[in-house]
Amino acid sequence: MLTKFETKSARVKGLSFHPKRPWILTSLHNGVIQLWDYRMCTLIDKFDEHDGPVRGIDFHKQQPLFVSGGDDYKIKVWNYKLRRCLFTLLGHLDYIRTTFFHHEYPWILSASDDQTIRVWNWQSRTCVCVLTGHNHYVMCAQFHPTEDLVVSASLDQTVRVWDISGLRKKNLSPGAVESDVRGITGVDLFGTTDAVVKHVLEGHDRGVNWAAFHPTMPLIVSGADDRQVKIWRMNESKAWEVDTCRGHYNNVSCAVFHPRQELILSNSEDKSIRVWDMSKRTGVQTFRRDHDRFWVLAAHPNLNLFAAGHDGGMIVFKLERERPAYAVHGNMLHYVKDRFLRQLDFNSSKDVAVMQLRSGSKFPVFNMSYNPAENAVLLCTRASNLENSTYDLYTIPKDADSQNPDAPEGKRSSGLTAVWVARNRFAVLDRMHSLLIKNLKNEITKKVQVPNCDEIFYAGTGNLLLRDADSITLFDVQQKRTLASVKISKVKYVIWSADMSHVALLAKHAIVICNRKLDALCNIHENIRVKSGAWDESGVFIYTTSNHIKYAVTTGLLWKQPKHWMTRTAGKSWEKWPCCRGTTRLWKCAISVPKTLTNFPSCILSLAT
């Protein structure tokens, strides 16, 4: 799990991602609704009109609206641009557990402890249908993403699937009006109903807390107090239990399908989030908290992001890194995508698959080291348990068929990281954090005693950068001695300039730029995450944060003329600044250097957003 954002608050009972903006709504047990920007890690707004816990929360897909439902029996529809509640829907007679907007129709679906599910028209502000049939609290009810179906979960130990096509036809056909002769139960004078039970799914031994549809397949997932996660399949005539995922040791609070992979995520009052493989019905990953029970899960509709609410707040996380492993040499970029090693020519923009990678690892490639002399690559795979990490040594085929690339036999061994240190030698940091030097046959040629480190990076022929908790050390592998060291905590990326004269060390919120001898030239601190960086051919270091592109130069008036990509962005009218050739309109320039270093400006290029 990669935690992207975390909050501390009262118990979080409801979560909803905004479909387009980097926002998330949290509804709290103390009655407050919070609106967070999870990219900037800031609280945008909070809404406090409910009396008691707020359990249901949902963003509208197109309008600047969200809906909430609480223990005060009220459903409130809010406009986050106007920052106020627009109206309140009354009708439920007990706590409201979930509230969801329909993806297309002007409907809200609510589930309540009064044993009913209600459909509301938020435009006419009326209840258009009441679904009755459960004989205990209804803990959850959700619309199907594409069809006229509703799924509900109840403490009566059942999951029900409802057909609401009659409701759509009566309320949304051309010229239709909500008939005065039809009561709010949805039964008209002729006995037909707007919503009927299509399937009743029985199989759980305790009350069911959550049920959700698969986004594309005819599947349902449910989680219950019997500690089980069940998968159900349905067709037009029937629905049946497919399998059960066992592993939680307390009530399962919530379970959702991964939008794009064959995975299920569930969380529980046992203080864990579990990831299940749908095809094998086995646990893939488990994430635990020490003191906080989990209550709710949400999946982002478009991005590989999830959120989980617990007793002490909530977390926004990814299951795995999406950044591909890559290596640049000259005008060639090698990178891994979909179990292929691909090659991109910067000059011609030709992008071809050069090799198929061997299967067998369930984890994506974490990083890559490329050897241009031997046309070989080292691909490192980082397991959730670091001791199970491996690397693969491949020689790239010379005449690759891009339509049907070869799958050469690689040499796989255990190791945290593997990095080339010479034409025919590479270094491996093994699971015991000792350094091994190997040849092209993947044979150990020698072992090297190194200072304590948890990661190694390339530093030119015969050298390595060693990372520990609070520094980076330049180490000579041949002479087996430390050459230099610089203080920086938890470096994530090391980026060398083309001539190896400068290096940028990137941490979560800091950048240190050094020369070849690891003398620190500049320290840059950012309040938000540093994401990536690259050296321009002129010696300019360009880097990105979560919401800016920025740059730093190692000398004063470096640019004789604007770069073509800057001209396109900022126009051709440029002012001259003493630190660098400056900026207009979208570009904002600021000097950020230590007092003793006046020759190293750091300039901010604000994105036009």
From TrEMBL:
It is a peripheral membrane protein. Its main location: membrane. Keywords: ER-Golgi transport, Golgi apparatus, Membrane, Protein transport, Repeat, Transport, WD repeat. It holds the Pfam family B-prop_COPA_B_2nd. One of its GO terms (molecular function) is structural molecule activity. InterPro entries: Beta-prop_COPA/B_2nd, Coatomer_complex_subunit, WD40/YVTN_repeat-like_dom_sf, WD40_PAC1, WD40_repeat_CS, WD40_repeat_dom_sf, WD40_rpt. The keyword Repeat applies. WD repeats lie at residues 5-39, 47-88, 89-130, 131-165, 201-242, 245-286. Residues 341-555 form the COPA/B second beta-propeller domain. It is found in: Cytoplasmic vesicle, COPI-coated vesicle membrane; Golgi apparatus membrane. This is COPI coat complex subunit alpha. GO terms for biological process: intracellular protein transport; vesicle-mediated transport. One of its GO terms (cellular component) is COPI-coated vesicle membrane. The coatomer is a cytosolic protein complex that binds to dilysine motifs and reversibly associates with Golgi non-clathrin-coated vesicles, which further mediate biosynthetic protein transport from the ER, via the Golgi up to the trans Golgi network. Coatomer complex is required for budding from Golgi membranes, and is essential for the retrograde Golgi-to-ER transport of dilysine-tagged proteins. It comes from Homo sapiens. Transmembrane segments: none annotated.
